[in-house]
Specification:
The complex is a heterodimer. Chain A is an all-alpha fold. Chain A has a domain at 95-311: MetI-like (MetI-like fold, Orthogonal Bundle). Helices cover 77% and strands 0% of the residues of chain A. In chain A, 42% of the residues are buried. Chain B contains 11 helices and no strands. In chain B, helix 2 (26-43) crosses helix 4 (85-120) and helix 2 (26-43) crosses helix 11. The longest helix of chain B has 37 residues, at 197-233. Chain B is elongated and about 75 Å long. The chains are: A mainly alpha, B mainly alpha. At the A-B interface, helix 1, helix 6, helix 7, helix 8 and helix 10 of A face helix 5, helix 6, helix 9, helix 10 and helix 11 of B.
């Protein structure tokens, strides 16, 4: 188990390096003088010159890259051009809400997706199966912003059931729950489809294996066969799916947070890009990429826990 | 779906030619017709649009013809600036499809070449796969955000990002198909009769992999369209006054209360395109290449 985690960590190193290179590339590639961009449109020439020396822009690119890595290691991501707060503190304030949104989305959509997928597999070919599969194809085809807008329009504005702007507080407070309900519902709706589809085909696959036939032959009840012998083995591909779709989920979070003015990393990134707040945009993109790597790492470890056959990747 | 699903057992027996089986599937048939109409509308946009898609009129936020205050002059109504929505839908579909096709095309070609090369030249394989692993760790939307951060909003950065995001998945699929093709006897036979590497690659390997790769790409097309539209919705993709479906939906957001049709119509259009592409892609896969499932 430890070797697996270690192995995965070692594989993450080149990826992490790639992410840092991307962040550095963002700085180098930006058209025009990075010092002017970092200093913002209102800066005086003296400030620009100071930033240039501070960033070491007159030095060779490789030296600049190592300097950049050093600053990253210290957690120095610069300051936001708009709020003048450090990028780290801005990101720190946004990580919590985004994590809450992810939890609030996954906690209902994964179990429901698994349940729907299992039902579809058990009653394969029935009306229920067709309805569930049609629903899941429709789910993966709906633009997430449309789901968000419709929820705002009906639940938020016309029926006045739930708030649809901002965050009410931590997840464990009533107000926090009420505010997170609509964003979590929107994000979850696009996630149920893939989970249900994957569960269905995976359960179908497992149900024809020998051990399931044996369990049936032993005279176990059908729900027991499906839950104990079928679903448990079928869940492994579903776990991988969550990892593979983490990017999809993060993308959905970017859109959802922006529409609901929910103060997470996604909204921060979009806002920073639209207002050319360069340091903040870079930081937000780096954090999102790190989150993606971390989710996949966790998924790989979970995968090994669920499937003892996997020892080393 | 970026992952291959386990095989479904009750696939129809392959007795009819593939296109007959495709047309016999009612859902796939409808999807095919819908997509044909959509593509025709996009191509013929300048000819069939009743109005100039960029010209404002005094009829602001006019509802579509089926509501009480609608009129045939603007069958789908007008937007917040009085522009004809039907015409903008035609032009918007054009740009949305173009973004999707260019990204999927570019990324697909590059990814397939990488994957095929990896299978053809086993020495290259570990390097290509490492590269693919690193590329896979950048989700499409993040690449989009990064490129837009550098080059500013626009359809082209979005296309580049989505193309890059298509490369790794496509390379993996192309490689796995090509590896099994490379084991076939006709490759050995081709080598034995002294075919050049280039001939072996294009005539035997490429030709035997291309249909599976195309099916995979068609399955990705819907997702790419959705991400492109989402980026445009956020103001990071197509720029006004261009018409793009995601951006049109975003422009309707402020009028949701009084004129919901401005946001709803383009969103429904995206849904229809993506749904048709997904249904057709699934059906094509089942009919042509069940290998992709297992």
């Amino acid at each position: 188990m430890m070797t697996l985690v270690l192995n995965r960590l070692i594989i993450s190193v080149p990826v992490l390096f790639g992410v840092l290179l991307l962040g550095f590339g963002l700085l180098i590639l930006v058209p025009g003088d990075p010092a002017i961009v970092m200093a913002g449109p209102m800066a005086t020439p003296e400030v620009v010159a100071a930033i240039r020396t501070e960033m070491g822009l007159d030095e060779p690119v490789l030296t600049q890259f190592f300097r950049y890595l050093g600053r990253m290691a210290e957690g120095d991501l610069g300051r936001s051009l708009i709020s003048n707060k450090t990028v780290i503190s801005e990101l720190g304030a946004a990580i919590g809400p985004t994590t809450e949104l992810m939890v609030a989305c996954l906690i209902w959509s994964i179990p429901l997706g698994i349940a729907l997928g299992t039902l579809a597999a058990v009653w394969r070919g029935s009306i229920t199966d067709r309805a569930i599969m049609a629903f899941s194809v429709a789910g993966v085809s709906l633009p997430i912003f449309f789901i968000c807008l419709m929820l705002i329009h009906f639940v938020g504005v016309q029926w006045r059931l739930l708030p649809f702007i901002g965050r009410g507080g931590p997840l464990w407070t009533m107000d926090g729950l009420r505010h997170i309900a609509l964003p979590a519902l929107s994000l979850g709706l696009i996630f149920i489809g893939p989970v249900a589809r994957m569960t269905r085909s995976s359960v179908l696959e497992v149900l024809r294996l020998d051990h399931v036939r044996t369990a049936r032959a032993k005279g176990l009840s059908e729900p027991r066969v499906i839950l104990r012998h079928g679903l448990r083995n079928a869940l492994i591909p579903v776990v991988t799916l969550v990892g593979l779709q983490a990017g999809y989920l993060l993308g959905g979070a970017v859109v959802t947070e922006s529409i609901f003015s929910y103060p997470g990393i996604g909204r921060l990134a979009v806002g920073a890009i639209l207002s050319s707040d360069f340091p903040l945009a870079q930081g937000a993109i780096l954090i999102l990429a790190l989150a993606f790597i971390l989710i996949n790492l966790i998924v790989d470890v979970l995968y090994a826990l669920l499937d003892p056959r996997v020892q080393t990747p | 779906m970026s992952i291959a699903e386990p095989a479904d057992l009750d696939a129809p027996a392959p007795s009819l030619p593939w296109w007959r089986r495709l047309v016999h599937d009612p859902a796939a048939f409808v999807a095919l017709i819908v997509l044909t109409i959509v593509v025709l509308c996009a191509i013929l946009a300048p000819l069939i649009s009743p109005h100039d898609p960029y010209a404002s009129s005094r009829a602001v936020m006019q509802p579509p013809v089926w509501s009480d205050r609608g009129a045939w002059l603007h069958p789908l109504g007008t937007d917040g600036q009085g522009r004809d929505i039907l015409s903008r839908i035609f032009y918007g579909t054009r740009l949305t499809l173009l973004i999707g096709l260019v990204s999927v095309g570019l990324g697909g070609v590059l990814g397939s070449l990488l994957g095929l090369l990896a299978a053809f030249r086993p020495r290259l394989d570990p390097w290509v796969m490492r590269l693919v692993d690193v590329m896979l760790s950048f989700p499409a939307i993040l690449l989009g955000l990064a490129l837009v951060a550098v080059f500013g909003p626009g359809a082209i950065p979005v296309m580049i990002a989505l193309a890059i995001a298509t490369v790794p998945d496509c390379a993996r699929i192309a490689r796995s198909i090509a590896v099994s093709v490379m084991k076939q006897e006709y490759i050995e036979a081709g080598r034995a009769v002294g075919l050049s590497d280039l001939a072996l690659f294009t005539r035997y390997l490429l030709r035997n992999c291309i249909s599976s790769i195309l099916i995979f790409i068609s399955l990705r097309f819907g997702q790419i369209i959705l991400i492109g539209a989402a980026l445009s919705f956020l103001g990071l993709g197509a720029k006004p006054p261009q018409a793009e479906l995601g951006m049109m939906a975003a422009q309707g957001r402020d009028f949701l209360l009084f004129a919901p049709h401005i946001a709803v119509i383009p969103s429904v259009m995206i849904f229809v395109i993506v749904l048709a592409a997904n249904v057709l892609g699934d059906a094509l896969r089942d009919v042509l290449d069940p290998r992709l499932r297992s």
